[in-house]
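Below sits our specimen:

——
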Amino acid sequence: MSEKREYRMEELARLAGITVRTLRFYRERKLIPPPRREGRIAWYDDDHLARLRTITALLERGHTLSGIAELAEAFDHGRDVGDLLGVGAPTEEEPVHLTPEELADHFAGEATPENLAAAMELGYLGADGGEIVHISRRLLDVSSALVREGIPLAEVLAAAKDVRTHADALAELFTDLVLRHASETDLPRLRPLARSVVEAELSLALDRRMRRR
């Protein structure tokens, strides 16, 4: 992994395409983390540069500085990709690294600071250095497809919160079942069976629901 570069204020502003005065304003508003101090010299790194480019991208999409400040605070106090996935934890989900522009493209203008903060609260989004990370390519693809079908992202996220509750209950049911008759080491091997049962039952439930309608 390459070592992070460091920049003085003037060089950082030039690379980010902003003025030094604007950089100072962003720092005063706490839109970027404080620099590393070496005597009277302030050193900024690639994470600061990525944050400034994110701010520019969000401003170009019509977001306000106050909304961006709320989002920046959420990321600064949120979880990183290791927290999202659990370091060393088994998972079948593939995380996706995204630029702010790519994330906005997925959600057709609905990647507002409010929706992004809600996605972070759910554990869908985290930060990895200067990048945004979605916990699951499958969930990203499904949620963006629902938005393209006209369902507001805020409602997709609200539904996801309810789905999470039911999914946790199903996972607990399956885990308890296995541990009553097998060992904990059998759980990773048997988890595809649990997924198949849930997928089949959901398919049958959707059939029943559509027949009723």
